[in-house]
Amino acid sequence: MRAMSLEEALRIIGGTFAAAAARKLRPLSAIVLDAGGRVKAFQKQDGCSLLRFEIAYGKAYAALSLGRSSRLVLQKSREKPIFMENLQKLADGPMFLEGGGQLVRDTAGEVVGAVGVTGDVNEMDDLCAVEGIHAAGFRTDYDFDDPDQIFAYNIKEGALPEPPGR
Description:
Elements: H1 6-23, E1 29-34, E2 39-44, H2 52-66, H3 70-79, H4 81-90, E3 101-105, E4 111-118, H5 122-135
Antiparallel strand pairs: 1-2, 1-4, 3-4
Helix pairs in contact: 1-5, 2-3, 3-4
């Protein structure tokens, strides 16, 4: 398994904040976890409210725990509440079930970590997370054409930029 460097994690956060600035969003907090669920980097913009570390961590941890974006983990919790209740009891960390948690994949599709973004509405948190991942040269679940690797994305068609080099 490939490890993500601190420099790459900070590029993800920088790209996330740049995307937020371009959209004139509320102040964001962003966390990057390695593939084992441990914190690689965290930054909180000036003006963020309390508990942003915990929320961002919970979004990224939820994505890693079930191998899908935190938005899709929320969907699963609605479909299978007993499963999710049991999973949360077993989990080594908190799971925050809202949009903004994305898996970070290398160009071959292997998960190398996750990012959690919080501070604006969930759809914008998601968009900024994806753009931050792309800014660091990584991919998301939505960048692969293999039907077995594609997951539903709940953001309006055309809202996401093309990943670099595609």
